[in-house]
Amino acid sequence: ACCVDDDDDDEPASSSSRGKNDNKTTPVGGLVLSDEQLSQLHLVAVHCDLEWPGRPFAWGTSVAQRLRAAYHRKEAPTPSRFQRDVAAALTRVGWAHETEHVTPEGFALDMAQPAARRAVEVDGPTHFLRRLPDDDVVLERLGGLDDSASSSDSPSRCGATSVSPSRSSSSPYVANGGTRLKSRLLCRLGWEVLHVPVFEWDRLKKKAHQDAYL
């Protein structure tokens, strides 16, 4: 179990506690944590709440709000041309959507239909790792690439899908841990998410091809 004191009287972070990149730090329970650390705690908390709903983390509302705020700062949207191109294509094919929708849990979605819990995420190069020759053997031993809990033999099916061509065994890339964790959590929250990998989108030079892909 994890317990963090919900204490609003902590001393502010000193300048000596800041990292080389001057990342924002926040005092929590006597510890001074960076936004990176707080963001990771937020994901752990959401994961535990979803997987073990009867055993929540032992911290108060104030700490939970700080974690979520740090995660939101860390994941602040910076729309790319790639994202704008996909959004334009979705509009052309009649898929009305909101951009940069933020869920109650703090997850920012590139394009979303909140009422239907459907979303499209554009995954740039930083979302992937290059597959090594022996990866298939290792991943098979670990249970495969698809950890979305949607298979029939999974003990915790989420009832939603998270589709990404990068999960194909023929792809030279595999989604990294952060991308897969967010995908899994969204799935557990009931979202249906389509991932659009940049290495597939870049091959679509004409708008007609982009529209057909979506």
- Output the structural class: alpha/beta
**Major sheet size, sense and barrel closure:** 5 strands, mixed
For the secondary structure, the number of strands is 9
Question: Helix segment count?
Answer: 7
Which blocks of ≥5 consecutive residues have pLDDT under 50?
Answer: 1-22, 145-161
Shape: globular
Helix proportion: 25-40%
Mean of the pLDDT scores?
76
Query: Which radius of gyration do the C-alpha atoms yield?
Result: 19 Å
The strands making up the biggest β-sheet line up spatially as 3-4-5-9-7
Spell the H/E element sequence.
EEHHHEEEEHEEHEHH
What percent of residues are in strands? Answer: 15-25%
- Distance linking N and C termini: 43 Å
Could you describe the 3D structure shown?
The protein is α/β, with parallel strands linked by helices and 214 residues long. The protein has helices spanning 35-51, 61-74, 81-92, 135-141, 177-188, 198-201, 207-213, and strands spanning 25-28, 31-34, 98-102, 108-113, 118-123, 128-130, 162-163, 173-175, 192-197. The strands form three sheets. A five-stranded mixed β-sheet has the order 3-4-5-9-7. The chain has a two-stranded antiparallel sheet with strand order 1-2. A two-stranded antiparallel ribbon has the order 6-8. Helix 1 (35-51) packs across helix 2 and helix 1 crosses helix 5. The chain is globular and about 55 Å long. The N and C termini lie far apart (43 Å).
